[in-house]
Amino acid sequence: MATTPFRYKLNLQLFAGEKTEKATPKKRADARKKGQVAKSNDLPGALILLFCFMTLLMFGGFLKDKIFLLMQGTLKDYLTTEISMSNVMPLMTDLMAQILIMLAPIFAVTVLIGILANYMQVGFLVTGEAFKVKFSKLNPIEGAKRMFSLKALVEFGKTLLKLILIGYLVYSSLWGEKESLINLARMPLTDVLAYVARLTVMMGIKIGVALVILSLFDYMYQKYEHEKNLRMSKQDIKDEYKKSEGDPQIKGKIKEKQRRMALARMMQDVPKADVVITNPTHFAVAIQYDNGKMDAPRVVAKGTDFVALKIKEIAKENGVITMENRPLARALYDQVEIGQTIPAELFQAVAEVLAYVYRLKGKAK
After folding, report:
1. CB pairs under 8 A, 24+ apart, for 193-198?
2. pLDDT, position 206
3. Distance CA 200, CA 138 (A)
4. What pLDDT was estimated at residue 211?
5. In the chain, which residue ranges form alpha helices assigned H by DSSP?
6. Which residues of the chain have pLDDT under 50?
7. Helix (H, G, I), strand (E, B) or coil at 337
8. How far apart are CA 286 and CA 302, in angstroms?
């Protein structure tokens, strides 16, 4: 017994709404205006941490001298000074100025790296979208969805990974220095401070490098998520095209209406022509020449097939002479647009036709 093969029809409309297409430039531009860009919030902080510790490593001697001078001056010069408004204000002003000088390199590096880290990710972008009040964020149900979403889970995993990594780096660094740490009790205070400062800076640099590497991976993930969120369906692309360029059907109707209006205007000028040169069936070109107002004859109407037939009918109804000249009709149709004057290479042939027409009109009179 023969079996009938199972056949089914695949409805492609079911997949029309799936976002499988890359975002268009307009979609990207609109998203950028709203502040929706691929950006890792961890990268600027990681770079700032790394470069701040590197700054401490470079300016460590400068900072040490400044701190010692500040402590020495405070304990030596101002310890026995009587407290009064006349001497407290200059003292506080001097102390604040020296502290700002010490912290100036760190402040400068923080601001510079923060700006560069954000610029490298998104470029120059100023938008007020983030300051708009969105009442949807006050919805507790939506807030719960965000708390237990995949994005929140990923953020929790990133935070946990950073804590584990930092803890491991601190533990491994301290464990490697366990013998030196035990001997700190027998070292002078200045050596202890120098050792602790060096150890802290080195751990900070290690942690900074590790966080920068993690942040680079986070940036790649954010870029992937951004591209995924920007994806469009085929229907989205069609709708965007209709909004930006206009509905093709409406544009076609507008063009058709414009063509009809232009054709009607052209037909109104046929009775003003002096002669209509034909192919005789496929082409028709109407020429007008006013010796007192025109420097050269000009084409007032032209057309092929149905339009040519209509031009000849209107010419006949209005007493405009029709002449058959196949090469001239074809040349005029190809080379001269409506409203343009006759070019120099065709002027002689047209002049002969007009002269013949004028002779006919003179005999008719």
Report:
1. 194/64, 197/60, 197/64, 198/60
2. 92
3. 43
4. 92
5. 25-33, 42-58, 60-77, 85-122, 140-147, 150-176, 178-182, 189-230, 234-245, 248-269, 306-317, 326-335, 344-364
6. 1-4, 6-10, 12-15, 363-365
7. coil
8. 6
